[in-house]
Amino acid sequence: MSSLRAKLxxxxxxxxxxxxxxxxxxxxxxxxxxxPADKAQLAKARYAKVAVAxxxxxxxxxxxxxxxxxxxxxxxxxxxxxxxQDGGKAIRYGITVGEEALAFSGIARxxxxxxxxxxxxxADIHKRIEGLPASVPGGVDNPLGARALYLYxxxxxxxxxxxxxxxxEYIGASISSGCIRMTNEDVIDLYSRVKQGTIVVVLDPKQGxxxxxxxxxxxxxGNSAF
Length: 226
What we know:
- This protein is an alpha/beta fold.
- The chain has a single domain (25-218), classed as L,D-transpeptidase catalytic domain-like (Beta Barrel).
- The protein has helices at residues 2-20, 36-43, 123-128, 184-193, 214-218; strands at 59-62, 72-75, 80-84, 89-94, 97-98, 106-115, 147-153, 156-163, 174-176, 180-181, 199-202.
- A hairpin with a 4-residue loop joins strand 2 (72-75) and strand 3.
- The protein is globular.
């Protein structure tokens, strides 16, 4: 009997371990979210369509925090944006975030939304980067990419955005001027799922608590399960 119990204990431990090590299932953003105008714009993109590193590809994952379904949560430490779903799930996207001195954190809401938005560099950006135009019309070569979600606190525009990018090779890095960048395909998908007024929680630096540590995942270590 003791031998049987020991075998059953080993089996149970093995099942628990295999469950913990279950691989994340990565998915492309659904083609159905692309409008004809989106397909036309993306077809003439002049930037390199670099494949995003696997840990930052779109995935449906278990979600352990308590934000309400429909909320957006940004974990800048690990370069992830979560769209919280019902039933303890979330859609997770890889992102580019701001350098630490430029990054936004706090609670905001989506105060405005735009498709293929024009870009108007702020005065601060003009100070840091010489030679920029006053504005850039919307299009696939625009730094804001395919979509923009404008973050507000109260009635004040924070000047921070969640938007697309024509530099997909930097997804997973901290190089932006503070905004949260996604691939154009991913931001189109996110845009199709949210509405004006959506709550956005951007976690403070060093407060990211994603179950997967993206830096370890890029090095081939860490637990990719959720």
